[in-house]
Design brief:
The chain is mainly α. It has a single domain, classed as MFS general substrate transporter like domains (Growth Hormone, Chain: A). The protein contains 19 helices and 2 strands.
Length: 475
């Protein structure tokens, strides 16, 4: 994409996706403060069983979402991304309402699996915005979109902390389904997606473009510019990447260069800039790994927060409300930093922002293991949220800049799968570690994971470009 496709509606779509992501995340995070309470209500007995089943139930949604994200990405490339958002919002509304009807822990896990299978609204919004926003504004737009996600992450736990007391636990799921249905209506009638024309045959493209430069004809006719092209007079010409004529055989075709010929060495006809994962697939792979580690670290703490707050303040009768505040304040820190870090990443490079944010969050997470009061946990959670706020938009923007336009949906779908993999492993691992070694050990483990992410991100950082334009493109 050259940055102009969808430019007529990209701002409109951004803000519709912003509102839709907010409402869906509110509904999805409402259950966090009372999920352990709901698990206990459904029959889980004992401290270790509650945290373990809470982790499994929370991770179940991300498991099926991770498995289906590449499929939705490919279908979005083929049929449009708006239909994927419509499907996700309607499916999530139905599945969330049904979750309130669970009769035991096993049914709860199955319904959470169904939610992930049918869902994926916020990730679909990310793909639509990343694909249709001009590249010069991509990190900013993704940062703005992340505000909707993180604002929902603030409001959702706060609402979830009081909703069970107002309408009951089961009715809270029905309310959540209704909130997601609002996002379905906004998506159906608010998004205007402009899809590019399907790629035409190479010969047709060459004839329509009528290039006057023989080097341009070669690039239009072949994937990497090495194939021959027919000019307007019908003469067959061949050119290698350097513009030098390729050898012509007796049959009139381009002869295969001699492997020992230093003038015409054999070159791959595959252009890394327009195929696969782009010119630097190693960099893309490392970014996918960082995305997974980031979500692992973030989600490993969510299922245990309520139990940890109860451990810090065993005399409180409002553990759900306090847990909602603890969860919300981290997202509040992310909201404060996301657009600022997004603009900083556009200016100095995404890699530096990613590395610095991971390192700062690792330090603050290590300190959380030593907290003795709830207010200390709240302050440190805000700091971690501030450090992590702009990281996922920066990772997404870096991937967007590194891959060809034709496969952006597919690779971003893989990015979503990598994030979901972290979201699956994080809660399960956190629940198991908490049950076996205690709550504080989870913070230490998470800090070490972020240290590993910092090292991976630093090793995979691209070389410093020599020009400002290259710096922007390298991310």
């Amino acid at each position: 994409m050259n940055g102009t496709i969808g430019s007529q509606h990209w701002r409109r779509n951004l803000f519709v996706c912003l509102g839709g992501s907010f409402t869906t995340i509110v509904a999805m995070t409402m259950l966090l403060p009372y999920l352990p309470i709901y698990v206990e209500h459904l029959g889980a007995d004992g401290h270790a069983a509650i945290v373990r089943w809470s982790g499994v139930a929370y991770a179940a949604t991300f498991l099926t979402a991770a498995l289906t994200a590449p499929l939705w990405g490919r279908l979005g490339d083929r049929f449009g991304r708006k239909p994927m958002l419509v499907r996700a919002s309607l499916g999530m509304a139905v599945a969330m309402a049904l979750t309130g009807l669970a009769q035991n822990v096993e049914q709860l896990v199955l319904l959470r699996l169904l939610t992930g299978l049918l869902g994926g609204y916020s990730s679909g919004s990310m793909i639509l915005v990343a694909a249709q926003t001009p590249k010069a504004h991509s990190a900013w737009a993704l940062g703005v979109l992340s505000i909707g996600v993180m604002a929902g992450s603030v409001v959702g736990p706060l609402v979830g902390g009081v909703a069970p007391e107002l309408v009951g636990v089961r009715a809270s799921f029905l309310v959540a389904g209704g909130v997601i249905f609002v996002a379905f209506l906004a998506t159906m009638f608010g998004i205007r997606e402009e899809r590019p024309r399907r790629a035409e045959a190479p010969d047709a493209v060459a004839d329509e473009a009528a290039p006057t430069h023989r080097g341009d004809q070669a690039l239009s006719a072949g994937e990497g510019g090495d194939a021959g092209a027919t000019d307007r007079d019908g003469e067959t010409t061949t050119a290698d990447r350097d513009g030098a004529p390729a050898p012509i055989g007796r049959d009139g075709r381009a002869a295969s260069p001699d492997r020992s010929d230093p003038v015409h060495p054999i070159r791959s006809t595959r252009n890394p800039a327009t195929s696969g994962w782009g010119a630097d697939p190693r960099r893309v792979g490392i970014l996918l790994a960082v995305a997974s580690l980031l979500m692992f670290a973030t989600m490993s703490l969510e299922p245990i927060v309520t139990v940890f707050v109860r451990e810090l303040d065993p005399g409180t009768s409002h553990v759900a409300t306090l847990s909602g505040v603890v969860m919300a304040v981290g997202a509040l820190g992310s909201i404060a930093s996301a657009p600022r870090l997004g603009r900083l990443a556009d200016r100095i490079g995404h890699g530096r922002v990613i590395t610095g944010g991971l390192a700062g969050a690792a330090v603050l997470l290590g300190l959380q293991a030593a907290t003795q009061e709830v207010w200390q946990l709240i302050v440190l959670r805000f700091g971690v949220g501030f450090c992590l706020g702009g990281l996922m938009p920066s990772v997404t923007a870096a991937i967007r800049h590194a891959v060809p336009d034709a496969v952006v949906g597919r690779v971003l779908g893989l990015s979503v799968s990598a994030q979901f993999a972290g979201q699956v492993l994080g809660p399960v691992t956190g629940g198991v570690v908490a049950g076996a070694f205690g709550m504080r050990s989870v913070f230490v483990m998470t800090a070490l994971v972020l240290v590993a992410g910092t090292l991976v991100s630093r090793v995979g950082a691209p070389p410093r470009p020599s020009s400002p334009v290259a710096a922007v493109d390298a991310g």
